[in-house]
């Protein structure tokens, strides 16, 4: 039986079929890997962003609670002083000036108002309503309550959008004289700008805003929106009901955000920190593109090898088909034309697959290492620190946490440039590592902030270690040619907390206390358990 010439017309050769299947498999594997990696990192970025925003809102709420209590205490003291000078308008002015100028800029103006609504005295006098009778529903309600009062935003007698905090003034015999009111001008510089201004907006588009208990904006990066009713926002509705949390939300302008929010107990206000979903997705696309750039060379090499192996795999069958063709034509085929192909090809295929798997594992190991390492200092990064803390907490072994921050690092950057600032960061990393035991770890947390984990240590043993780091860093020749100092906060497990968040918060608070007490020092965090 002879083969007919037209028999193979329109048929796919085995070499093309094998090659096509291998190319398809490699491409699909790469696509699946990218899609799965994209989804996994998307979930991680979403959750991380929500956690960071909620942490920011919680810290701001805690700060505001403390600030409002301090403002309330200041007014109570001022009310007692005003009662002693109530009969003399000139003397009454003195405690008001002292509160305004000596109270840390807590209020934009302070006024003493009689029960009849007459402004007995005001500081600063440039407000221009001293001696005048003023009326507003807010002041009327405060007079009626004769108790500490905090108003909703309203337009005051000066035409400004303000909020008022007031304290009643009572004579020694208990008679009600009037009230002492401190005002905050929402459209002008105020104490909230001073305290929270740095948290309002960053380059990623993340920003924070504050709403009152009625759902109106009292603090926002866009001053034009102050006083706007935003109750339609689901996050604001949660805050009005006293709830804290985090969620993906569409705001009143139709923009989607990842928001964390916290309720302020002292006055019922709410604080929201949120990041545009678009900026998170942009960062995610950037990471995916970088991953593709890492994978592409290995994939291209793997494709070339795979096609070559497919051709080699098909070669014996192709050769046998040619032999069959020769036989069908009656030609003689020497036995030497039939070498043993199969074992050799199988061995080559195994070797190439092992090389491909090894290449992909090395690629994955490299990506994992880069994801856990700070590229500037070579230290483990924040993600590596979180993993290490979780392992320590699961093992329930005692350890200490040092949070350190370079003093006046912004001045170094502004004076010497960011390149020198980077040298300073690398200098700190090298200095810290030189003072640590082999069992201890140093991480770069972010910016000029570093974290050290000391194995089997407590606050007592961690303090000399921290001091050794601080003194070594201060005394060693720095990239800027003069001493640079550190502020260090210490927390230990389990004394300072039972969770990673509590431990870091304790050490972070201690570090900021070190800065507030003069910098270049080590402070131990307070006991919390």
From TrEMBL:
GO terms for molecular function: diguanylate cyclase activity. Signal peptide: none annotated. This is GGDEF domain-containing protein. Keywords: Cell membrane, Membrane, Transmembrane, Transmembrane helix. Gene3D superfamilies: 3.30.70.270, PAS domain. It is found in: Cell membrane. It is a multi-pass membrane protein. GO terms for cellular component: plasma membrane. The lineage of its organism: Bacteria, Bacillati, Bacillota, Bacilli, Bacillales. Residues 397-527 form the GGDEF domain. CDD domains: GGDEF, PDC1_HK_sensor, PDC2_MCP_like. It comes from the Bacteria. The keyword Cell membrane applies. The chain crosses the membrane at residues 12-36.
């Amino acid at each position: 039986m002879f083969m007919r010439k037209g028999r193979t017309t329109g048929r796919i050769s085995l070499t093309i079929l094998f090659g096509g299947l291998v190319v398809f498999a490699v491409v699909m594997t790469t696509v699946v890997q990218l899609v799965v990696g994209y989804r996994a990192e998307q979930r991680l970025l979403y959750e991380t962003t929500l956690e960071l925003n909620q942490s920011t809102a919680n810290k701001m709420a805690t700060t505001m609670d403390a600030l409002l209590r301090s403002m309330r205490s200041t007014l109570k003291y001022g009310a007692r002083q005003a009662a002693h000078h109530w009969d003399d308008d000139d003397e009454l002015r003195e405690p008001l000036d002292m509160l305004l100028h000596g109270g840390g800029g807590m209020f934009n103006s302070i006024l003493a108002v009689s029960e009849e609504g007459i402004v007995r005295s005001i500081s600063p006098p440039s407000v221009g309503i001293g001696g005048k009778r003023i009326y507003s529903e807010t002041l009327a309600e405060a007079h009626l309550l004769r108790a500490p009062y905090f108003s909703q935003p309203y337009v005051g007698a000066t035409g400004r959008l303000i909020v008022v905090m007031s304290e009643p003034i009572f004579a020694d015999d208990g008679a009600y004289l009037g009230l002492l009111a401190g005002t905050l001008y929402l459209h002008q510089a105020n104490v909230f700008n001073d305290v929270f201004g740095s948290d309002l907006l960053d380059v990623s588009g993340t920003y924070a805003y504050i709403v009152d208990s009625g759902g109106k904006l009292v603090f926002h990066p866009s001053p034009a929106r102050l006083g706007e009713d935003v109750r339609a926002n689901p996050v604001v509705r949660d805050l009005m009901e006293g709830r804290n949390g985090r969620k993906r939300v569409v705001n009143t302008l139709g923009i989607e955000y990842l928001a964390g929010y916290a309720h302020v107990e002292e006055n019922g206000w709410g604080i929201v920190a949120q990041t545009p979903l678009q900026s998170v997705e942009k960062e995610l696309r950037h990471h995916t593109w970088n991953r593709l750039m890492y994978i592409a060379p290995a994939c291209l090499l793997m494709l070339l090898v795979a096609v070559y192996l497919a051709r080699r795999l098909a070669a014996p069958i192709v050769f046998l088909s040619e032999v069959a063709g020769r036989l069908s034509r009656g030609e003689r085929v020497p036995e030497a034309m039939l070498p043993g192909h199969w074992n050799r090809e199988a061995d080559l295929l195994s070797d190439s697959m092992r090389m491909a798997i090894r290449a992909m594992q090395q690629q994955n190991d490299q990506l994992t290492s880069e994801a856990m390492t700070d590229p500037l200092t070579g230290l483990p990064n924040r993600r590596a620190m979180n993993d290490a803390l979780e392992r320590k907490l699961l093992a329930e072994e005692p350890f200490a946490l040092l949070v350190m921050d370079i003093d006046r690092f912004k001045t170094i950057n502004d004076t010497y440039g960011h390149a020198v600032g980077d040298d300073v960061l690398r200098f700190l990393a090298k200095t810290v590592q030189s003072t640590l035991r082999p069992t201890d770890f140093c991480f770069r947390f972010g910016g000029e902030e570093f974290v050290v984990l000391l194995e089997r240590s407590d606050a007592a043993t961690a303090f000399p270690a921290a001091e050794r780091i601080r003194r070594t860093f201060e005394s060693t020749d720095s990239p800027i040619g003069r001493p640079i100092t550190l502020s260090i906060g210490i927390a230990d497990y389990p004394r300072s907390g039972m969770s990673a968040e509590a431990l870091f918060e304790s050490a972070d608070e201690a570090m900021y206390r070190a800065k507030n007490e003069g910098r270049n020092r080590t402070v131990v965090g307070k006991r919390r358990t």
